[in-house]
Amino acid sequence: MSDAAAVPAAAPAPPAPPESIPWLGLAAVLLGTFISTLNGRLSTFGLADIRGAVHAGFDEGAWITTAQTCAQMLVAPFAVWIGGMFGPRRALIDSALAFAIISLIEPFSTNLPMLLALQFAGGLASGFFVPLTLSFILRNTPPKYWAYGVAIYALNLELSLNISASLEGWYVDHLTWRWIFWQNVPLALGMVGCLHWGVTRTAPLPARPPADVFGLIFGGLGLALIYAGLDQGNRLDWLNSGLVSALLLSGGVLVAGFIVHELRTAHPGVNLRVAAAPPLPRLLVLISFLRLTILSTAFLIPQYLGAVRGYRALEVGQTLIWIAAPQLVFCPLAALMLRRTDPRLVSSIGFIFISLACLMVSRTLTPIWNSDQFLPSQLLQAVGQSFALSGILFFAVLHLRPEDALTFGGAVQTARLMGGELGVAFVATFTRMRSQTASNLIGLHVQTGDPVVVQRLGAYAAATARAGDPGSGPARAGALLGGVVRSTAATQGVIDAFVAISACTALALMLVVAHKPAPLGPASHRPLFSPREADPA
Description:
By secondary structure, the protein is an all-alpha fold.
């Protein structure tokens, strides 16, 4: 027998994993964060229809949207750990499939407890989307695509916030409220397809560190309790409510215990040193500030159009859609600028535009405005929001190592949700208090017997008296004058809120300008490209 024959045949090499398609991966990023934000906003706009379907009152129904977002906060630390252990691809595909199934059966809920349980389960599934899709940008795409991925992430946040009213109104008017949930099914399945073909399969870690069960539970539960307290605070009058006080206090204690434990344990579930390393804390604060400014369109404009002008959800959506549409143009423009200029410049331009847009509204808003008057300022704000969020996120990316992407994604999810909830709490409470103050001040000048008031009531009575029943005029005149006072006070509250948001935006701008320039690339690949380098693609 020859020597050649004695040599055993070499084992066939394992097949190489299929090439991933970066743009499909970026589509998964878009769909994941789009679904996460859109579902919460649709539930908010369609809350009255959902409450009616399960025979829930106002107070009980207020927990429908809270249940979903609390679950997203609860699962955020677990999402970071599971993504690190098993890879983001597997975790995202499984969670997207679970979310599609939950969304399919949720409209068949027969009572409020069943609906709340399904909302909570859907929040647990969708809570994986934002932390893990952000990490995909850094770990599974070439560096030249990172700016585009970040811009797409910013695009979908703006888009989902501002088209939700249109979608909800169209579903209710032309189909059924059940499509508020059913629209998630094709979106989640599309996300699964993009992940399957667009993200490379990664093997789980061969030597998995022990799970930090204590830290993950304390961190997630603490954040969820704080969020619930903030979400219900305006309805229950904040610290005057024992429930709100208990939620905030217990959540704060759990989060404090979580931080101490993670800093001392040998195998932390979440690497807090990454989130605490400069400049990420300041950037996370900026993301929270930006979520507050976004509410000037996502909350204040619907508040004004609904309370003062009596618009329905579909009519409100026709206004907000013109804020969302320009994002499709300015998103790629923001990405190109991020590739060739300092991200601080891009985000500074964005914050300046947002501040100017808020001041434009605050200086000219009156109770007779309709949706068309908002268009110039909101087109300016649409540009600003795209640039500001894209610039902040990309500035943070340039300070990261790709292996820290999961922790960064979890931190962004926490800042996004908590900053948004703080913004909602602040804007809603501030608007309510300023409206009450304005109503009291206006009421001081509406006195019985005052010649101007008598003249106004007489004009109202003459205009509203029924034919053959002149005695109906005075009663209608009083109700009409009361409505004028309420709408004027509500308008003043919205104006004051726009001024406050503009001031917050100016503060955020100072934080951006005062920061040192970003490095030329992430820490472990520096320099990957020059900020002014032309895109080789």
